[in-house]
Amino acid sequence: MSMIRDLRAVVRPSRVSLRKDSGTYDATRSPATATAVVDCAVYRDGRRVETETALTPHEAVRLARRDGGFVWIGLHEPTEAEFSGIAGEFGLHPLAVEDAVQAHQRPKLERYDDSLFTVFKTIHYVEHDQLDANSEVVESGEVMCFTGRDFFITVRHGGQGSLRALRHRLQDDPELLAKGPSAVLHAIADHVVDGYIAVADAVQDDIDEVETEVFSPGRKGSPRGSDAGRIYQLKREVLEFKRAVSPLLRPMQLLSERPMRLVDPDIQKYFRDVADHLARVQEQVLGFDELLNSILQANLAQASVAQNEDMRKITSWAAIIAVPTMVCGVYGMNFDHMPELHWRYGYPVILGFTVVVCLGIHRTLKRNGWL
Question: Ramachandran region of residue 180, left (φ > 0), alpha (ψ -120 to 50) or beta?
Fold first, then answer.
């Protein structure tokens, strides 16, 4: 049982990198072979059964049922025709098969007679030099798992969420893998949630950057309200993140709290740790949404205040210009009998009077903060 205590160490290294894998598929898929099966192996006593040639799913099932152990089949975006044979071999429920083929499912856990069907949304952080209104921050995919007594099937959709490294780490821990398909289910759940934690940290940096720029004083070269598009785009990406995290919390709680005959009791308690980490990520994502709402409101308020200041300045200068406009308008009238019309000092006096009044209005408005 000492190896079981190191269960977290088996899957934790997956948290390190946020960048895209160089490859799309999990393992030994031949580029010349048009098949959705990316890896198919039989595990007996926690060790992979080595064969001279790659096993087909049918051969793997026969070997697992003849000699004991379980089969782990990994598929990537199978068609209905490609998956129908595997589904019939293991007696998978038609509704679960339909969900696995069509994808775009909500994270969930469904129990059928002899299997569990689990849907995970994988989230990948998209690196970008600068966040703008069109930046893609997170990219989602799906991993669907069928867990049975002697089989484990993964169906991936999307270019991210490779399970190759996870499979290798599990194969390096035979005592853990000897616990059966439920150990693989836990490892994948923990792998996915670790990805959420890493993405949450990266999204936090983006939000901090936007928050700093919105509230930084004296920004130059940035039009007022130009941050609203970036904030709204970030909110959309956080919403996609939230759709992956929030629905998964209940399935993880069920796996950790409710006894299930397909889940080894020694493995079940480790789902509590996954559920706890997932709950913390959910709180973080909800906090992101609220914080972005506040930042967006503050940004719009800043734009509104700036517009009000502009209107006050325009109004102030209009009031100043109204004085010479009025004076010139009065003395521009063509009447013969007007006060001081032919006075020698009339022009400089009126000009000086206009300047004094305008300066007085300017000083008053500036003292009151209008200019």
Answer: left
Closest CA to 153 of 105, 68, 96: 96
Let me know: does 214 contact 227? Beta carbons within 8 Å. yes
| DSSP secondary structure string for all residues of 140-198 | EEEEEEEE-SSEEEEEEESS----HHHHHHHHT-HHHHTT-HHHHHHHHHHHHHHHHHH
Pairing verdict, β 138-147 and 116-125:
antiparallel
How confident is the model over 3-12, as pLDDT tens digits? 444 554 444 4
Q: Identify the three-state secondary structure at position 225.
A: coil
Q: Which residues of 177-190 are buried (b: 16+ CB within 10 A; e: fewer)?
A: bbbbbbbbbbbbbb
- Say if residues 120 and 100 touch (Cβ distance below 8 Å): no
C-beta of residue 312 within 8 angstroms of C-beta of residue 366: no
**Distance between CA 142 and CA 155 in Å, rounded?**
8
Reading the block at residue 22, the tokens are 């160089």
User: Would you give the DSSP letter of residue 178?
Assistant: T
pLDDT tens across 244-300, in order? 999 999 999 999 888 888 888 888 888 999 999 999 999 999 999 899 888 888 877
Distance, CA of 153 to CA of 351 (rounded, Å) = 92
Nearest CA to 120 out of 247, 264, 9 is that of 247
Q: Which amino acid, 202?
A: A
Whole-angstrom distance, CA of residue 101 vs CA of residue 106: 14
**22: pLDDT strictly greater than 50:** no
Q: In degrees rounded to 5, what are phi and psi of residue 156?
A: -105, 145
Give every CB contact of residue 274 below 8 A, 6+ residues apart in sequence. 186, 189, 190, 193, 252, 256
Structure tokens at 371: 């200019």
